[in-house]
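Support request from a user on the community tier.

User writes: "When I paste my structure tokens into the form, the page sometimes reloads and wipes my input. The last time it worked, I copied everything first. Here is what I submitted, just in case something in the input itself triggers the reload:"
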């Protein structure tokens, strides 16, 4: 680490371990953004290109990988983090004092643009505003509620609108934004004659801008769900046997829920409200949020939508804390009253149940339903309802990250089999039925209180069928439960161009956590599934459990494909390689083909082939050099064959200098 006083390489002996020092100034606090770190290694040899580094980050967005790079560019999540860099040389000597650095990532929304004004600019209107906010990275100019005009940089404080009609008044709003959120200016009305009118002429609820959600936060423990937990997850069987919970019951870890504040998870419009308390629901709110133009929300099943509804139930009171003060429930008008992300909207009550927040997420709402609250338990779960916690995790920020979830309860959803037990010896375990081991009695919860377990020395198979909406690369995760004596589960991924063998996961090593099976390509036209069995590989024949599956999108290449070209098998030799690798494939029909190398993060490294090919075998050589002419670092790469923007084959290659 950087505390060693070794003066570089001069005092090193042949057997000394490697060392590393930071080569960039570090901060104790960063705003939510892309952050760069750099370090420099030294070894007992003059050349230090034999060093590997283990890069570990704790906290939200954690990762753990090996690289030969001496730079790191990452997007840590919000909260506290510790970054650890451990050097390792080819003699297997490890730095005894790794680099460590603790920092925090905070979320600061930009300040609203100030002093918005307009003036005549020939045949157009010139808008200008003021801002010296260090958190702003750019501005968006809007006209008449929903007309996007332009995105400009943080150093641009003016815009000219040329597409206007003389003697017509226009409404303008300028929005400052960064990677954490956005803030709108006060509206300005202006005509070509240069007449201005500050302020809004209509109520805010008529402005779609105030209903557009650029991100979602958690409504309790705001914004990051701190000191709360999901006591009864979506899809669980924990209260009514054989009925599945259609929401998430959220409790404080200290069980001091009564009177706790509840916040709006996103900008939106209150579309319904219940203020009576005679039934088990207590007071309720339904909030609808709209996606910004050209954006959409990712739902947990992989589908997308332009609107979402949240139902917040078991409220004790409803009082919206606006910047102008409290808005009591008798002044709230469904269909007119808007809320903004982070506004306090009420507190948790105890009508009908012990205090907790019942949170539901709906893809759509029947506005003619006289009782829209529905029921908390179903068999099957209605198709329009989804896991609110998974939805929020998918949409903390509207970017190209999303995850697809597949659960054990999905075998009952909409008559579509998504989880199937292919042998009849799986036993259903729920949080409603505790399993006991001597004096140690705990409910087996797993991911959502619905677990399937097979006992020792039995052959069993289960399968999750995956509904892939976008073809591309996904990192596959399995949830390994807190079951006491899990053995080794053998997973097989049947996906596009997948040649992966059995992947063994030792359940005794993990407890209630996501475990990665690696990054794999998936194609919308394939029969994609993940299979778990107790035999094959080196199974220990102990109990194993089937629980949830998650696929996190990795943006190597994303597209919506309907008619895909035929797949090809890609091969490479030698693999791993240290100078050149031969990449080959065979086509069975004429194709326009791109052969592209991507790195492990999905960044394009080198284009090896772009040509119209006839039927036949093809081979090319990659020398480990990028399109920019620089040698790439050692690591894992993907040779991807694409046709018509569709992935038709790929091969993982490992470069070791």
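"...and here is what came back when it finally went through:"
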């Amino acid at each position: 680490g950087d505390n060693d006083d070794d003066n570089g390489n001069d005092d090193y002996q042949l057997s000394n371990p490697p060392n590393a020092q930071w080569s960039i100034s570090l901060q104790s606090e960063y705003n939510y953004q892309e952050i760069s770190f750099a370090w420099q290694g030294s070894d007992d040899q003059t050349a230090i290109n034999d060093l590997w580094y283990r890069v570990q980050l704790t906290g939200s967005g954690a990762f753990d990988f090996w690289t030969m790079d001496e730079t790191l560019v990452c997007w840590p999540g919000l909260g506290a983090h510790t970054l650890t860099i451990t050097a390792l040389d080819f003699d297997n000597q490890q730095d005894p004092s790794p680099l460590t650095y603790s920092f925090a990532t905070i979320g600061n929304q930009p300040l609203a643009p100030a002093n918005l004004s307009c003036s005549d600019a020939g045949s157009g209107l010139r808008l200008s505003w003021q801002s010296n906010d260090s958190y702003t990275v750019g501005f968006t100019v809007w006209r008449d509620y929903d007309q996007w005009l332009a995105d400009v940089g943080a150093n641009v404080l003016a815009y000219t609108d040329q597409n206007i009609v003389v003697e017509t008044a226009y409404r303008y709003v300028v929005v400052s934004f960064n990677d954490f959120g956005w803030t709108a200016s006060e509206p300005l009305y202006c005509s070509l004659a240069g007449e201005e009118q500050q302020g809004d002429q209509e109520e805010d609820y008529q402005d779609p801008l105030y209903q557009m959600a650029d991100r979602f936060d958690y409504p309790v423990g705001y914004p990051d769900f701190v000191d709360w937990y999901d006591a009864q997850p979506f899809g669980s069987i924990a209260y009514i046997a054989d009925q599945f919970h259609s929401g998430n019951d959220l409790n404080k870890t200290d069980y001091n829920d009564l009177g706790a504040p509840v916040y709006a998870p996103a900008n939106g419009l209150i579309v319904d409200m219940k203020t009576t308390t005679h039934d088990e629901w207590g007071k309720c709110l339904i909030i609808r949020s709209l996606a910004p133009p050209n954006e959409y929300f990712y739902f947990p099943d992989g589908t997308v939508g332009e609107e979402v509804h949240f139902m917040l139930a078991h409220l004790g009171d409803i009082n919206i804390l606006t910047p102008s003060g409290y808005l009591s429930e008798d002044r709230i008008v469904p269909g007119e009253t808007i809320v903004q992300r982070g506004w306090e909207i009420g507190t948790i009550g105890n009508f009908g149940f012990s205090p907790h927040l019942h949170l539901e997420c709906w893809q759509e709402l029947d506005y003619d339903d006289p009782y829209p609250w529905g029921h908390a338990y179903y068999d099957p779960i209605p198709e329009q309802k989804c896991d609110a916690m998974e939805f929020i995790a998918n949409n903390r920020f509207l970017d190209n990250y999303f995850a697809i979830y597949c659960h054990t309860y999905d075998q009952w959803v909409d008559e579509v089999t998504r989880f199937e037990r292919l042998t009849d010896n799986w036993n259903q375990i729920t949080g409603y039925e505790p399993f006991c081991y001597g004096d140690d009695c705990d409910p087996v919860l797993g991911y959502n209180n619905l677990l399937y377990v097979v006992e020792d020395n039995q052959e069993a198979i289960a399968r999750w069928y995956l509904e892939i909406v976008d073809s591309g690369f996904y990192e596959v995760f399995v949830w390994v439960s807190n079951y006491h004596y899990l053995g080794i589960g053998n997973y097989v991924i049947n996906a596009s161009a997948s040649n992966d063998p059995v992947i063994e996961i030792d359940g005794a090593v993990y407890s209630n956590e996501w475990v990665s099976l690696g990054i794999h390509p998936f194609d919308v036209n394939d029969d994609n599934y993940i299979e778990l069995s107790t035999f094959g590989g080196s199974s220990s024949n102990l109990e194993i459990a089937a629980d949830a599956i998650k696929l996190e999108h990795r943006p190597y290449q994303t597209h919506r494909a309907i008619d895909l070209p035929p797949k090809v098998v890609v091969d490479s030799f030698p693999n791993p390689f240290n100078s050149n690798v031969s990449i080959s494939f065979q086509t069975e029909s004429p194709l326009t083909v791109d052969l592209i190398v991507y790195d492990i993060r999905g960044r394009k490294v080198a284009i090896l082939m772009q040509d119209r090919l006839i039927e036949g075998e093809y081979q090319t050589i990659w020398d480990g050099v990028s399109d920019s002419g620089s040698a790439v670092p050692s690591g894992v790469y993907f040779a991807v064959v694409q046709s018509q923007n569709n992935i038709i084959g790929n091969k993982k290659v490992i470069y070791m200098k």
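Agent notes: The reload is a front-end session timeout and is unrelated to the input. The domain at 570-655 is CATH 2.60.40.4070 (Immunoglobulin-like). The chain has a mean pLDDT of 81. Escalated to web team.
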